[in-house]
Amino acid sequence: MEPIKKLFQNSFFSEIAQRKRRLESLQRDMSKFFPKELISLVEIKNQIGKTLVVEVKSSVVAHRLKLAENQIINAINTKLGSESLNKIKIRMTIQNKKIDKRLVDSPKPSIKKLKALADKISDSPLKVALQKLIRSK
After folding, report:
1. The domain containing residue 68 runs over which residues?
2. Which residues, 6 or more positions from 94, have their beta carbon under 8 angstroms from its beta carbon?
């Protein structure tokens, strides 16, 4: 068990842990300045120079954050006493939802037309492809 502990203490993992602690403290410090209804919906990702990079999951939250951007920046700059921020960059995360194939109904008339077409044509790669397409639906 001791070699594994030493592995996680090397410089690569310590840099990752240090970055994680920095982002957590940035999230904790900066979330004081966000509107209360947006605090749990906004995740601070980084601060690059005078730009604060945040991530949101919906366009509604991004819009509300953009509307309050000037007030947030002014509050942060007055609290810190200097112009430490001049912009908030908002990124949206895209949540991919897996679509259940059983729930998606394919149009029945088009499948009937494909079957009729596959029956009419002679054996060819097109006929094989049509039959595979019909079977998958």
Report:
1. 2-92
2. none
Give the integer Cα–Cα distance in Å for 14 and 102. 47
Query: What does the alpha-carbon distance between residue 60 and residue 89 come to, in Å, rounded to a whole number?
Result: 15
Per-residue pLDDT of 66-118, as tens digits, reads 999 999 999 988 988 888 889 999 999 887 777 666 655 556 777 788 888 88
Model pTM? Answer: 0.58
Q: Is 98 exposed, middle or buried (0-12, 13-18, 19+ CB in 10 A)?
A: exposed
Residues 50 and 103 in one domain: no
CATH of the domain at 10: 3.30.300
Separation CA 7–CA 13 (nearest Å): 8
**Contact indicator for 43, 23 with CB cutoff of 8 Å:** no
Helix (H) or strand (E) holding 30: helix 11-30
Same domain, 87 and 134: no
